[in-house]
Amino acid sequence: MSLDLKNNAIDRLRLASVLDGISYLILLGIAMPLKYMAGEPLAVKIVGMAHGVLFIALCACLFEVLVRKKLSFRWCVIVFLCAIMPFAPFFLDRKLKTKEG
Prior knowledge:
This protein is mainly alpha-helical. About 75% of the residues lie in helices and about 0% in strands. The chain has four helices and no strands.
């Protein structure tokens, strides 16, 4: 994945989306089972906080892309909805790669 984070708002959005997707999968696949099956709630606190920060970063990148008119409002809604579905950000990344420019 080649990204130009300094000059390209869509690349920043792609990175934020993938990082948020990874943190979401870790939260659902590792931290939640540790909490409910092993009685270790600390994992959810740590991973949940990290995921929350990354989700806010995703929202900030999404707002930047919307304001700079790099993506339509419809695309921004799709990106936001994909952020709440496991594995969706990884499929979305391929679509956003074609929107670079």
